[in-house]
Amino acid sequence: MPEPGPASAHAPVARRKGRRLSWIWLVPVIAALGGLFLVVRVWMDAGPTATISFQTAEGLEAGKTQVRYKEVNVGLVERVALNPDRSGVIVTVRLDKDASGLLQEGTQFWVVRPRLTLSGVSGLGTLLSGAYIGMDPAALGGRQDARLASKSAFVGLEIPPEVTQDRAGKRFTLKARDLGSLDVGSPVYYRRIPVGQVVGYRLDGTGEGVDVQVFIDAPNDAYVNRATRFWNASGVDFSVDARGLQMRSQSLLSVIVGGVAFDTIEQRERVAAKADAEFVIFPSEGAARAQPDGVPLRIRMRFDQSVRGLVVGAPIDSYGAAIGQVDSIGLELDRTTNRFYAVVGATLYLERLGAKTMGEIKEYSGSSLEHPSGKLLTSMIEQGMRAQLRIGNLLTGQLYVAMAMFPDAKPVSFKMEDTPLIPTVPNNLDQLQQQVNSILVKLDRVPFDALGAELNNLLRGTASLVKRLDTRLAPEAQAMLRQASRSLAAVGGVLSPDADLPASADAALQELARAARSLRELSDYLQAYPDALLRGRAQDAPSAPRQGSSR
């Protein structure tokens, strides 16, 4: 192998080049960064999610069913699944970012479907577009209320609310014994103008009454104050009084679906009532406009006669004014006579007599309505105050209790108790019934069989007498009548103007007339010359000569 020479030291040496990054790799990097940016942006722009529990998923579909607020799309249903116990469904919805403030305590969700209610037809647009989830947030104007906490799990409503939470107005609670013909959507009237509606009802805490929720729209809610009274305006109210037959109704709608009306009865300071204030529903407008009941006074009354026609709720009347009502009717046994008698429990509202009268009663009795002393009742009972059953309707036979004065009533002892016993007197009808019964008893003692036999014998004797009169006396009577007729004819002939007797009687009457004149002249002469009876009649005086005659 030859040795390298000096010229080989300058020979070129081959070198290895280094690796360089190609620009082609920038494309996937940029795409990855763009995708990550889009993911981050979508994540940042995505709104919150919430779960809503419903009883059924009818009309709901993931990826299609919308969530709307005021008919604006604010979200979409992402998932529909059964709940763990399979008693319902859980719907997962995602809201827009700008609607995140609507998810807070008090927000309500429901499924909008076609519905027919008393207030009208709703959801007809869903027949073409499909069902959607309606939303009613507790916040006003879409702004989150700092006092309400955020929430992500909700229980949906099966029935849409009648009034949204952002509607101007107030809710009030009305206390009633029963619901009657009221229902959700029934109108509320003020001076026959609809100003609100019934939005709900439920049993009260005791289960003995019903709480009716009503909503009064603004600005009419300002007319509800402490002196306002509500009454049931359902149907048609008929009444018969001195003015005749009267019929009252708020509107045709209230006749069909019921309704409530209110008005301010007392003229005092009218301060608008607060929201959720409680009021009592009166059964009618007349009851609402009556005097306030005030503190009740429970009483008992004993009636020894029949109380047929007296019902619970019948009025207690005093001088034409209703001061109470009957609460109960029962029977008790009197051990001394072993006879049953009726015990009527009732409630008196003395404040219906008027504030001025109540002041005088309290001053006179020396007590209060909460703690009566009984002085007033004792004094009135000593003067003859009694309870009496009276007929209120002749057609139906309904009775009522009247508190009146009976000066001739027998004295009774009275003791004030928690439920005092008010003495009673029988009514006129009962007295009449007793008198009729007494007459019937006396008539029952009459021997009608013996009287009938005697009357039969009398009728037979009368028939025999009539027969004898017809066969024996009738011919003789006819002959007598014919003889009498002939006698009357003879008398008529004698008295005829052409007969001799009338002419002779006329001449005799003329002679009697001349004799009477002569006697009258003689009487006048003797009265003028009484001595003529002794001396005789005086001679006539010579007549005096006429003047101017010759001798």
From TrEMBL:
GO terms for cellular component: plasma membrane. It comes from the Bacteria. Residues 47-137, 169-227, 297-403 form the Mce/MlaD domain. Keywords: Cell inner membrane, Cell membrane, Membrane, Transmembrane, Transmembrane helix. It holds the Pfam family MlaD. Its main location: membrane. InterPro entries: Mce/MlaD, PqiA-PqiB_transport. Coiled coil: none annotated. The keyword Transmembrane helix applies. The chain crosses the membrane at residues 23-44. It is found in: Cell inner membrane. PANTHER family: INTERMEMBRANE TRANSPORT PROTEIN PQIB-RELATED (PTHR30462), INTERMEMBRANE TRANSPORT PROTEIN YEBT (PTHR30462:SF0). This is Paraquat-inducible protein B. It comes from Achromobacter veterisilvae. The lineage of its organism: Bacteria, Pseudomonadati, Pseudomonadota, Betaproteobacteria, Burkholderiales.
